[in-house]
Amino acid sequence: MKCEMARDNVILAYYGELPDELSGALEQHLLTCHECREELELLQGMESRLAVLPVVEPTPNLLAQSRMRLEDALDAIPPHGLLTRLRTNFFVWMGHVRTAPALATLLVGVGFIGGNFLNRYEVSKVPVPHTPTGYSNPAQSVVANVTGIDRTPDSELVQVHYNRIVPETMEGSLDNKEIRDLLMKATTASAEGVRANSVQLLASECKAGHECPAREDGKGVRGALLVSLRYDKDPGVRLKALEGLETYIGQDQRVRDAVLESLAHDPDAQVRMAAVGLLAPVQHDSSVRKVLRTVSTQDENPYIRTVSFNTLQGSDSIQ
């Protein structure tokens, strides 16, 4: 056995993973090689030093990232060449020859083959009890995607390989782009409390005169508020979106159209009343007057009809 292979086997033997057929060859090599013996002694000394240090549990995020990196590294390992496989098989065969007589080796082989066939026959005939589903750290994360499925032959056991998303937290100023991006994503979250908080923070930024530019693709802070105003099911969230858009109703036609749409079709009376108040500065606009006329005669709420009528009268006097 050469030193290169012996050093690899030293590591396997140190962790108790070296096959029995290679143990004899490694022991004989260590008796004659001083450098490989020093390698083993260094591993043993490292264990004694590490034993006095406290054990720190890794974070779930580190475990998830390490698993994914390990899978990528294993997939990138090229297959062993023919020479390496022949060399490994040769040492395995030599280990069998040194540790057992030829007849015992033959009997062990025959017994192994017979036991394997017998075990398969028994597994196929005996019903397998239901195996409970097991999870590793189920409360630490959620399932991101399934990467593979393996079924054990002749049984009902199934292994499902999947990746988990570990929750994280980011802290920063509202002026930070990453914080703003997360807040805009939160405007479409399933939890109403998360949506309300994110829309309120974005609206407060716009009301304070901070950067809320209009983008042609409809994205950005102003676009997120428009989406919340039109499609959010919580009237409280729609009210907060109206507050954030108030500054831009006179300069952005898209904002004006969204507020008019809320006044005409929003099912909540408070949202419609807030929309009437926002339209007062632009009451001279023809599209605004058209909607005000319709609401002043058809809205089911008498207060909204009255306010719309008064706003319309003020528009007519201006004209």
Question: What would you note in describing this structure?
Answer:
The termini are far apart. This protein folds into three domains: 3-50 and 83-125, no CATH class; 130-168, no CATH class; 177-318, Leucine-rich Repeat Variant. The chain has 319 residues and is mostly helical. The protein has helices at 3-14, 20-32, 34-50, 60-76, 82-99, 102-125, 177-186, 192-207, 220-231, 235-245, 253-265, 269-279, 286-298, 302-318, and strands at residues 142-151, 158-165. It has 14 helices and two strands, in the order H-H-H-H-H-H-E-E-H-H-H-H-H-H-H-H. It has a two-stranded antiparallel ribbon. Strand 1 and strand 2 (158-165) form a beta hairpin.
> What is the helix content?
55-70%
Q: How many distinct domains?
A: 3
The largest sheet is: 2 strands, antiparallel
Number of helices: 14
Which percent range describes the beta-strand content? 5-15%
Tell me the name of the CATH homologous superfamily of the largest domain: Leucine-rich Repeat Variant
User: Can you write the helix and strand succession as a string?
Assistant: HHHHHHEEHHHHHHHH
* Mean pLDDT score: 78
Low-confidence stretches: 133-137
Describe the global form.
elongated
In short:
This protein has 319 residues and is mainly alpha-helical.
Helix and strand topology:
Layout: H1 3-14, H2 20-32, H3 34-50, H4 60-76, H5 82-99, H6 102-125, E1 142-151, E2 158-165, H7 177-186, H8 192-207, H9 220-231, H10 235-245, H11 253-265, H12 269-279, H13 286-298, H14 302-318
Helix pairs in contact: 1-2, 1-3, 2-5, 7-8, 8-9, 8-10, 9-10, 10-12, 11-12, 11-13, 12-14, 13-14
